[in-house]
Structure formats: C-alpha cells, structure tokens
Amino acid sequence: MDFDLNMPPYTFVKTLTASDVGSQSRLMLQRSDAENHILSHLSEDNNIAIQAGEGVMIRVCDRNSDTEHMLVLKRMINTTGSYVLNGGWIREFVNRRGWKEGQKIGLFWNSNKNSLDIYMLHPPPADKNNPN
C-alpha cells in the first residue's frame, strides 16, 4: 500500500449530498461515524445531552483554510437517529468555500485541539462562468 505523507490524517470520509449543501443547513453524519469518531472523544455530559437530542457546541476546524468555527452537534432523535452538524455549517463551510454536492471531505477528531477537523479531499469543480 502506498502512503502519501502530505495526505491529511482523516478517520472517515463523507461525500457531500444535495441536502448537505442545500437548504437543510446541516451536515448529516452517519451514526456509526459520529459515534466511533466524534462522540467517543466528548465528555459524558455532552454525550448525555446529545443522546437526548440537545445540541452541543463543538469546535470544527477547516484544515484547508486553517480556520476554526463553532458548530452544533446534535442527534436527530425524532427521525433517523443520525447526527448532524449545524448552527453555521452552510455559512462557514458551504458558502464560504463554495463546496458542492459530490465532493469528498475527510474528518477526524483532533485530540490536541479538542476539535473536529475537516479537509476537502478533492478541490471543487471549476466554475465555468468564473475562470479565476
């Protein structure tokens, strides 16, 4: 297996869906990914709040632009039971960075910074109307 030392150290990958970049204003995370790679690093109090459907603020770092943002992690207890990041997801990531459906992001919990770090793994497709 070949390793790229310049590749970010993500622990799970998410392909952005239409709902992740659209009007629903949230990033949907698979239950297993959230539980195995995020919740396992949070305090017991935060886990209890999240399991009750309450939102918990977490630091989310955009490693491509080296910026930090505070977003809300919550569980959708009345519907799918999945986890979502909202409270600024569209503004801070999708709109600011021009992220689109079909792009892949890598995510991992950064224990040193106590944050969820996100990398865009594939650059956004070129905008045919804006060559710059």
Walk me through this protein's architecture.
A seven-stranded mixed sheet has the order 1-6-7-3-4-5-2. It starts with 11 loop residues before the first strand and ends in a 12-residue tail after the last strand. The chain is an alpha+beta fold. The mean pLDDT is 88. A hairpin with a 4-residue loop joins strand 6 (104-110) and strand 7. The protein has a single domain (12-120), classed as At1g16640 B3 domain. The chain is built from four helices and seven strands; from the N terminus they run E-H-E-H-H-E-E-E-H-E-E.
| CATH arch. level architecture | Beta Barrel
Whole-number average pLDDT? 88
Alpha-carbon distance between the two ends: 36 Å
What is the CATH top level name? Mainly Beta
Which regions are unreliable across 5 or more consecutive residues at pLDDT < 50?
A: none
Count of distinct structural domains? 1
Assigned CATH superfamily: DNA-binding pseudobarrel domain
Strand content: 25-35%
SSE arrangement, N to C: EHEHHEEEHEE
Percentage of helical residues? 10-25%
CATH fold name: At1g16640 B3 domain
Helical segment tally? 4
Please tally the β strands and state the result: 7
- Overall geometry comes to globular
Most strands sheet = 7 strands, mixed
Q: Strand order across the biggest sheet? A: 1-6-7-3-4-5-2
Rg is 15 Å
Q: Supply the helix-strand structural class.
A: alpha+beta
